[in-house]
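Working notes for the structural subgroup meeting. M.R. asked for a predicted model of this chain before we commit to crystallization trials. I am recording the input and output together here so anyone reviewing the notebook later can reproduce the run.

Input as submitted:
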Amino acid sequence: MLIQSLKKSTCLIGTLLVLFGFCSFLPVYSFHLSHRRSSWSSSQFYSQRTPSSFQQSYDVCILGGGISGLAAAITAASKHKQQSIVLLEAQSRPGGRVVSEYRNGYTLDIGYAVFVEKYPQSKNIFDYNSLQLKQYEPGALIKINNTNKRTDTGFARIADPLRQPSKMMDTILSPVGKVMDKIRLLPLFYYVKTKSIEEIFQDDESDTLSCLRNKYKFSQEMIQEFFEPFLKGIYFSPLDEQSSRMFHFVFKMFVEGAASLPTGGMQAISNQLMEKAMSMGVEIRLNHSVKNVSYDGANDVRNSGRVICDGGGGGYSVVMDKGGCIHAKSVICATDDMTAKRILTSVLGLDSLSLLELERQPQRSIGCMYYTFDGDTPVKDAVLILNGEGKESGPCLTVSFLHVVNESYAPANCGICSVSIPSEYMEQYIGPRRTEELDKVVRDQLASWWPDYDHDIRFKWKLEQLYDIQNAQPAQYFGPQPATVHGGRDPNKLQGVQLADGLFVCGDYMATATLNGAIESGVNAAEGALEFLNR
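Returned structure, recorded in token form:
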């Protein structure tokens, strides 16, 4: 009876272990996904027209070409084909925080992330077949404290015995946590399987650490070796600053689905949304940074010295940083919250409300280092590697050999290793020698994990890039506007401030700190804009 229970519970561990990364968020056009990686030119985003021939008056103007903005554009275009829609993006490529770089044949996602296949909004908007997703194995390799010789290698492998029967006994006998911890996974599994997403977000909320300790009674060993590195790799914050609702929601997604990497990197999902939006008639303008938005319909605004577009009475003037102006009946600000506040302070009625003085929701940050190499790979399985030894052991939080999961991430016979670095280590290493010093510490730690590859890791692996990703995610458990609202907030309000008719905001901070939340908020804003236009 005990073994039967353990079989069920260890399956849950394997399932939970593939729950890593979003996202971020934290984090480009027109390439054929049959290719190994994307190649593009910013000119591909433009019609065959000169800038002076662009239309200057639109029904909907979307500010920001990240996931929320693209979702808003697609939703508006699909639900009302007669509307004219333009999307303005400040950068030379769309995608926001969901972007990749291509260097020497390698794909570097700007911040380690995976594609969560079960997110409801993702299923609604993406063509999974075209993304050519390659899945992680439903399990992980955990580096544990091996002072008592708990394993021969210092690693403990946890797999899904239902999908990988040959590894069932390894999982049952895994030294991660205690035997009772595996049994205690059963109530967690039952909860997420029997609760709808709506019910999960209506349930009582606590921080995740309290939930794991008090509701499920997991041991400190299980929390330190598994839950802490795993969940911190997703939400970039300590467990006592994470929401129990978000924990249950994402766990449900991975009990019922999988985590994967798209061919061509995470950039591929931004590519697909952009291509879809343009095919539906949305006009895209890159390198168009917006200075402010003004209301067109009042004489006092026209006399205030602000730029007003020639678009007729009513609506909004969208003014560019480098000159130029667009008139729109409705504006969707699909930027981060601080940019939205800066842009919208020029709108009549909002300038006196001091939007910029509103307390900002705390933001999470994360570091990511990419190493490339020729030859053999220390780990041959497509699994996530977790540091279960605790943060004191070194800066490596999660490690993944991306080319093992999806071969498009590296040239043939080459490898690429992603290492996630928590914010406390990124803050510890500062100054002109930051990269050099952090690189040495990371190499030392990885070499101690895989001593057979010591020489290669220390001297042959190439540090391709260190990314320090600020504002990777909005905080989800405390602050003035926690990013834990399933279904999203009212897009006609910004942090409780009522916006003018026809003005909307979206972004993951308006819903949940996930790709699902970013899409969801964009859909809400587009639906709000269409409802306004149809009055």
